[in-house]
């Protein structure tokens, strides 16, 4: 059952806020991420933290890792993010947060380490049950440009199955790079964990949609050809940790790995 492991996944997962030029430099929601080690290593989708030139943003040190806020659970924040690695051929970025520099945060009172989800290298098969937790559909607003704004987070759980473990460029000596889910995941889920329902371990991260172009036989162009309709979010494509380069790098950093 999802409920058996969800509390730990929720504790380890957060919304990533990056400085936004359109919001006067105020950090705004850009995607999701989650801790994979007690000492602050975390992962997100590489495209979440990239600039327009395809390189990691130079202002990551001005980012925040944020949790939802309610009456009994104050807004949880981490700062002092340092760049790590972006894995070639995979939409996975590895970064780190300094625990000591964030130890004054209320949500870390009494703790000696970050909550985290164990990464698994086990290959998922078609029909395996998984779920995602992340922060899709988050929004922001500006009250006073450059000085005051607000953030609305939308934490969501999505259940799914592995629809396919074969996608373009999936097979090869380095293992599967992507899995396809039978459900699409919304904007803002990018970088969030894909969790095996049975174990609570992370096997992949949210990466992208798989759009489909479906010809509509009843709609014709001026030459009589069927007009195609693009369905942008029928399936979700997620980036797998089951990759020799990624596994080797995580092991070199003593990040916990489950086989």
Q: Explain this structure to me?
A:
- There is one protein chain.
- The protein starts with a helix and ends with a strand.
- The protein is mainly β and 259 residues long.
- It has one domain: Thrombin, subunit H.
- It is globular.
- It has a seven-stranded antiparallel beta sheet with strand order 5-4-1-2-3-7-6.
- β10 and β11 form a beta hairpin.
- About 3% of the residues have low confidence.
- Keywords: Hydrolase, Protease.
- InterPro entries: Peptidase_S1_PA (IPR009003).
- Pfam families: Trypsin_2.
- This is S1-C subfamily serine protease.
Task: Spell out the blueprint of helices and strands.
Blueprint lengths: L2 H10 E7 L7 E9 L5 E4 L19 E3 L10 E2 L2 E6 L6 E5 L1 H4 L16 E2 L8 E6 L4 E6 L3 E5 L3 E9 L13 E4 L11 E4 L5 E19 L5 E15 L3 H9 L4 E2 L1
Parallel strand pairs: 8-17
Antiparallel strand pairs: 1-2, 1-4, 2-3, 3-7, 4-5, 6-7, 9-12, 9-14, 10-11, 12-13, 13-16, 14-15, 15-16
GO molecular function: peptidase activity
Organism: Methanococcus maripaludis
InterPro entries: Peptidase_S1_PA
Order of helices and strands: HEEEEEEEHEEEEEEEEEHE
Largest sheet composition: 7 strands, antiparallel
Number of helices: 3
Structural class: mainly beta
From the alpha carbons, calculate the radius of gyration and give it in angstroms.
Answer: 19 Å
Under CATH, the topology can be stated as Thrombin, subunit H
By CATH, the architecture is named Beta Barrel
Shape: globular
N- to C-terminal separation?
Answer: 21 Å
Which CATH class applies here?
Mainly Beta
**Helix proportion range:** under 10%
Determine the mean pLDDT: 84
Q: What is the number of E strands?
A: 17
């Amino acid at each position: 059952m999802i409920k058996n492991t969800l509390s730990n996944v929720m504790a380890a997962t957060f919304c990533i806020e990056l400085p936004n030029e359109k919001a006067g430099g105020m950090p705004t929601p850009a995607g999701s991420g989650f801790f994979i080690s007690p000492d602050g290593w975390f992962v997100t989708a590489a495209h979440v933290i990239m600039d327009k030139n395809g390189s990691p943003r130079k202002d990551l040190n001005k980012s925040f890792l944020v949790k939802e806020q309610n009456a009994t659970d104050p807004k949880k924040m981490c700062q002092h993010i340092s760049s790590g690695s972006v894995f070639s051929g995979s939409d996975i970025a590895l970064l780190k947060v300094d625990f000591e520099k964030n130890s004054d945060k209320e949500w870390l009172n009494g703790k000696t380490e970050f909550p985290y989800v164990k990464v698994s290298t086990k290959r998922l098969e078609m029909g395996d049950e998984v779920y995602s937790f992340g922060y899709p559909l988050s929004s922001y607003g500006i009250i006073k440009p450059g000085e005051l704004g607000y953030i609305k987070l939308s934490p969501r759980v999505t259940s799914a199955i592995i629809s396919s473990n074969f996608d373009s460029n999936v097979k090869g000596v380095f293992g599967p790079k992507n899995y396809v889910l039978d459900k699409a995941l919304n904007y803002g889920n990018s970088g969030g964990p894909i969790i095996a329902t049975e174990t609570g371990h992370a096997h992949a991260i949210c990466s992208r949609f798989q759009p489909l172009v479906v010809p509509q036989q009843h709609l014709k162009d001026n030459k009589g050809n069927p007009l195609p309709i693009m369905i942008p979010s029928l399936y979700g494509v997620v980036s797998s940790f089951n990759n020799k380069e990624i596994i080797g790098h995580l092991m070199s950093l003593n990040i916990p790995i489950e086989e």
